[in-house]
């Protein structure tokens, strides 16, 4: 049975309980409190020491302001249309998404690993064996999602294990256990796919027609990765959540170069053969 995550961004409240639970269970160090100046989010991105990251995404109203602006009148005028005729006063809106390793079906990091450190375990999760990793870092640029990084002063690469040790004991991953709104769900990938489709249909029936599942080949957003075991319910374009619209295997970029090189070598060989005949 393949296990994975379903992250429903529509009910994420940005509490970061998943981040804390992940760090606590996996004994990962804190990231400090650096002020980025562009977000209220201090952990910024996934890394070798942050395996769950709640992204704070601010969606300002697309309105250009010029001249003298009456801010009171502006605040009274700005509303977000909601289904059923309801309105939400706001100058914009916030979205939150708990990001994590996508556990790709065709994992580029696994294909790039020269030592066999990255495997698929018995739960069909992409798993890094730290005792075999030699710190070469080939998996880092291979990941189309920027999930994997090398840990400073260690050199080895780390990422979400989908709480492999907890799964062995029949427990759900720490992040899913800690989520207070059930935004993070864990289970069989096929079951999660059905749950995701039902949730999207429910949202669309309520008027949120932009809702969709990201991470399944049928819907798109998976390119040459053949789908992900970490799926997401989104309300905006993937790029809004810093997700690629069409992730691909790195070798897809080299296919054209390989073909061109083969053609050039054939032509060159033919020229040399003609030059030295007789």
Automatic annotation (TrEMBL):
Domain (4Fe-4S ferredoxin-type) ranges: 3-33, 92-123, 124-153
The protein, known as: 4Fe-4S dicluster domain-containing protein
Cofactor: [4Fe-4S] cluster
GO biological process: cellular respiration; formate oxidation
Lineage, broadest ranks: Bacteria, Bacillati, Actinomycetota, Rubrobacteria, Rubrobacterales
Residues that bind [4Fe-4S] cluster 3: 101, 104, 109, 143
Keyword Transport in record: no
Source organism: Rubrobacter tropicus
Co-factor binding details: Binds 4 [4Fe-4S] clusters per subunit.
Localization per Swiss-Prot or TrEMBL: Cell envelope
